[in-house]
Amino acid sequence: MLKSIWADKRKRVALIAAISAVVLVIAGVGWFAWSKHELSVAGASCSSAAENVESARAEYTKLVAGDAKSAGEVTSDQVKDEKTVGALESELKVNKPNSVDCPVGDTKGLKDAASELSEQAEWYKTHEASLSKAVENVNASKLDKVIDDANALLADSDGKVADNAVRDELAKAIEAKDEQQIAQATTKVNDSIAAKTQADAQATQQSYSYSYSSSRNSSSASSSASAGGLRNVP
Questions:
Q1: Phi, psi of 70 (to 5 degrees)
Q2: 108-121 pLDDT tens trace
Q3: Which domain holds residue 186?
Q4: Is residue 174 in a domain?
């Protein structure tokens, strides 16, 4: 009887041990599968964040090397508001984020990297927007200065050009706010002013020469008449 009870007890212990072992194996397999899944998700998230950064960085870099570079060549004396030039210079001096890599086989590292990369993507998007605005402000201020100078020339050139049609052309360019057209029309107005100035100078010189010549001829004729009259005196 005792042997039977002891045997049954041993069987129960063995069964419990076997079941525990199976549970541990299942738990281990489950934990491994979950860990592997989490690693895979973290890796995919980090890769996606890295792609977003590359895309945002590419757009920002394109702006820096293109429109921002051109606007950066504009000097303070070429704009109506000098502050726009300073604001653009400040935007171009900002320190860009350092590159971040997605670590292999490190779930926590991947999550941290993904978080940092997401912040970098936002940095590039934010600074692309602010840099674009700074470029826009410089270009607008430059155009304002061009228009002011053109208006001043238009007013000052009244009656001073050889052909008033060039002033009409300048007025239309100003109205259109077209910087290239204004530049072309400004050149024509200045050339026409120079042409009229030269023509007026030549006309004045010719008038002076004619007056001087007429004066000399008149003086010579008077002297000759006087001399002739003296000879006829007995």
A1: -65, -45
A2: 999 999 999 999 99
A3: 157-207
A4: yes
pLDDT tens digits, 165-207: 999 999 999 999 999 999 999 999 999 999 999 999 998 887 6
User: 99-123 as b/e, with b when 16 or more CB fall inside 10 Å?
Assistant: ebebeeeebeebbebbebbbebbeb
pLDDT of residue 154 exceeding 70? yes
In a domain? residue 184: yes
Residues 71 and 137 sit within 8 Å (Cβ to Cβ) = no
Q: Report the candidate in 84, 179, 93 with the shortest Cα–Cα distance to residue 133.
A: 84
Domain membership of residue 144 (yes or no) is no
pLDDT recorded at residue 197: 94
Q: How many structural domains are present in the chain?
A: 1
And the tokens for 75? Answer: 């000097």
Give this prediction's pTM. 0.72
Q: Which residues, 6+ apart, have CB-to-CB distance to 64 below 8 Å?
A: 92, 131
pLDDT in tens, 198-210: 999 998 887 666 5
**Chain centroid offset of residue 18 CA:** 73
Euclidean distance between CA atoms 166 and 169, whole angstroms: 5
For residue 233, report the phi and psi dihedrals to the nearest 5 degrees.
Answer: -75, 125
121-140, pLDDT tens digit by residue?
A: 999 999 999 999 999 999 99
- Domain membership of residue 79 (yes or no) is no
